[in-house]
Amino acid sequence: MKAVLIPGDGIGKEISQSVVDITKAMNLDIEWVEYQAGAEYAAKTKEVFEPGLVDAIKEYKWALKGPTATPIGTGFRSVNVALRQKFATYANVRPIRSFKGIDSKYENIDLVMIRENTEDLYKGIEYMVGDDVAHGIKLITREASEKICRYAFEYAKANGRKKVTAIHKANIMKFTDGLFLECFRNVGKDYPEIEKQEVIIDNMCMQLVLRPETFDVLVAPNLYGDIVSDLCAGLVGGLGFAPSGNIGDEYRIYEAVHGSAPDIAGKGIANPSALLLAFALMLEALGQNDQANRLRDALSKVVEEGKIVTRDIGGHASTKEFTQAIIDRL
C-alpha cells in the first residue's frame, strides 16, 4: 500500500527517516510517498502545502506527519488544524502510557485522551472590532459533539476500557459546553456497561496531577482536549513519547505531538520515538497489531536498557544510532 509521509519542519526530516528505515527493516508492505508542508516550505515557496499533497491524501487515505511550526500571532494558520478540518478527521486520539526507562513522577499510567478535532475556538472564527476589541467565536455543534462522544464510548468498548470522563466548563459556558455535556449524557445512555464521569476542566487538571491512575478514557471539546493532552504527556515524561492519531470516517493522519525543535534540527540527535509510536498506532489501525506491538516492544526495550538512547532521555546516541538499536532489537 501507499501512504503519505510529511516530514514537516525542523527535526522532522531526521525522525521521518527513522520511520522509513524501520519500515524497510520490518519488511512492511508500505510505500511512503513524501510531500512537504510547514513553515520552512512556506518560507521558500509562499505556499504552506506542496502541490499534490492534498490530492495524495485523498487518494491514499493514510498519512504520517512530522512536526510543523506555526507562526505565533501572525502568518498562516496551523498546518495541523488545516489538515484536520480539510479531511474531517474529527477525533484526535492520544494514548498516554508510562514508559520504563523514562524519568517521570508516575508509573503505570494508561489512559487515552480523545479530543474533538474540527470546531470549538479552533474553527478560527475571529476578527477585530475596531482597533481595540477582538472577537472569537466558540462553535460547538450537536452533530460534532455527539460524534466525538460516541467515538469515545465505542473506543472504550472496543478496548476493554471501563470509564469515560467528559471534560467541560458547563458551569460557565452554559450554552456551548452545556450542549457538549448534554450530548455526552445522551450518547452515554447507549453504553450502560461503561461508567460515566463529568469533570470541570480546571478541576480536571488538578485531579490528573493528584491521581492520574483513576482515569481511563477522557473526551473533550477541542481546546480543553489540546491543553489536557499535553498535561497528560507531562505525566509520563513529556512530548517525546506522545503519539497522536487524527481519525475521520475516510481519512487518517498520524503524527508526533511535539514541536519541530529548530535548536537541534540538522544535528542528528533528535528522538524519533513519538513519530515511531504514531507509526505503531497507524499499523494497529491497519490491522497489523502484531507488527505494531513488535515495534513498540523493541523501542521500549531499547529505552529501558538506556545504553543507546538520545540525549533528551539521558544518553549520547544519535538519531541514527538509536534507530539502529531498535532495528537490532526487531
Topology, number of strands: 12
What's the CATH first level of the largest domain? Alpha Beta
Strand-pairing-aware structural class: alpha/beta
Shape: globular
Overall pLDDT confidence: 95
Please give the count of helices. 11
Helix content, binned percent:
40-55%
**Which CATH-level-2 architecture of the largest domain?**
3-Layer(aba) Sandwich
Poorly predicted residue ranges: none
Return the domain count: 2
CATH-defined superfamily of the largest domain: Isopropylmalate Dehydrogenase
Q: How would you sum up the major sheet?
A: 10 strands, mixed
Explain what the structure shows.
This protein is α/β, with parallel strands linked by helices. Helix 1 packs across helix 9 (273-285) and helix 10 packs across helix 11. The strands form two sheets. Strands 2-1-3-12-11-4-5-10-8-9 form a ten-stranded mixed β-sheet, sandwiched between helices. Strands 6-7 form a two-stranded antiparallel sheet. The chain has two domains: 1-104 and 242-329, Isopropylmalate Dehydrogenase (3-Layer(aba) Sandwich); 107-235, 3-Layer(aba) Sandwich (Isopropylmalate Dehydrogenase), CATH 3.40.718. Helix content is 40%, strand content 18%. GO terms for molecular function: isocitrate dehydrogenase (NAD+) activity; magnesium ion binding; NAD binding.
